[in-house]
Amino acid sequence: MPYYSQWESADLVEQIVTGSLPASQDPRWADSGAATAAEYEFWSWRICGMACLRMILAHRGDPVPPSVPLAEECTLAGGYIRHPDRVDGLIYAPFASWITDRCGIKATVRGQLPHADIAETVHAGGLAIISVHPWIRWPERTPPKRGGHLVLVTGTGPQHLLVHNPSGLPGRSQEHARVDLGTFDRFYAGRGVLIHL
User: Where is the Peptidase C39-like domain (predicted)?
Assistant: First the structure.
């Protein structure tokens, strides 16, 4: 399963998320398709869902568009609502319709998504985009709430999930990060989008 970070330089994610490096100083920002470094910084914090979609497209062998134009296209489809200082979304229903129409990807939105249904989909060859708190990159922490960030479930076991985390830390929580179900439940909002491949 290919991996994409929501930042162009996956090796710099720890510096970016801890605030020691502004995202606008990512040396690869232009690869995002953004017109300016400031536009890249604005979107880079908000496009975990587009990173998940890019991974799915790459896994299928489809062309993988740059992240910012993809986010803008998703916005036009209703998957995001952009405001001057923030973005509402990812809004699951229009996102699911858009990826079906645009990419031929069958997606099922689930407001309540138990572990068993995630496992069933993954075992059948699918994937799941699920809502977790972004601190899942630090599984030892206790998050202040659940949800707010999207990760891609790439595998499951009896007591764990494997996730590709678009804001994961290099070498620790980016690719096929193993999260025990007990830990996972502290971060998981219980909802997501099942991807049927």
Answer: 2-166
